[in-house]
């Protein structure tokens, strides 16, 4: 297997996808922010000084999805057809679980967009709560589902 973002001379380049068929594609990524139970209480009660932590983080994830090609140098700008960013408080972490689902109909996948959505949402949770707790940790960011295109379906645990 070769790395597609390097040409024959070893130089980084954007992959030419012009000969690839347009197909429906989807990617799901997950991650979480671990925090103290007292910090999570601010999220659940909606009493964080900066406002609605989960709502603002959801918007940040959606916004970041649309800007992925601006952030990751060799990503193609894609016509995103759906973005869903779900944030769920979880007492067992304790913290917030984040999942992003991104869809497109195009010539390349949306794994980077889903990862970017989760990353931005997690970073926003941290930003919204850092005055309360600086020791929060962002963990476990990964692609858990990718479907569409030549390589087919990938699913964690499948």
Question: Short description, anyone?
Answer:
Belongs to the MoaC family. With 158 residues, this protein is α+β, with helices and mostly antiparallel strands.
| Helix vs. strand class | alpha+beta
Major sheet size, sense and barrel closure:
5 strands, antiparallel
| Unreliable parts | none
Quaternary structure: single chain
The total of beta strands comes to 5
* CA-atom Rg in angstroms: 17 Å
Q: Spell the H/E element sequence.
A: EHHHEEHEE
Q: What's the tally of helices?
A: 4
Strand order of the largest sheet: 2-3-1-4-5
| Portion in beta strands | 25-35%
Mean pLDDT: 92
| N-to-C CA distance | 22 Å
Shape: elongated
Residue share in helices? 25-40%
List the helices and strands and how they pair.
Elements: E1 23-34, H1 37-45, H2 53-66, H3 68-71, E2 80-90, E3 95-106, H4 111-129, E4 137-147, E5 154-155
Antiparallel strand pairs: 1-3, 1-4, 2-3, 4-5
Helix pairs in contact: 2-4
Structure characterization notes:
- The chain is an alpha+beta fold.
- It is built from 4 helices and 5 strands.
- A 5-stranded antiparallel sheet has the order 2-3-1-4-5.
- A hairpin with a 4-residue loop joins β2 (80-90) and β3.
- α2 (53-66) runs antiparallel to α4.
- Homohexamer; trimer of dimers.
- Residues 14-149 form the Molybdopterin cofactor biosynthesis C (MoaC) domain.
Please tag this protein with its features.
elongated; Cyclic pyranopterin monophosphate synthase; 4 helices; alpha+beta; 30% strand; cyclic pyranopterin monophosphate synthase activity
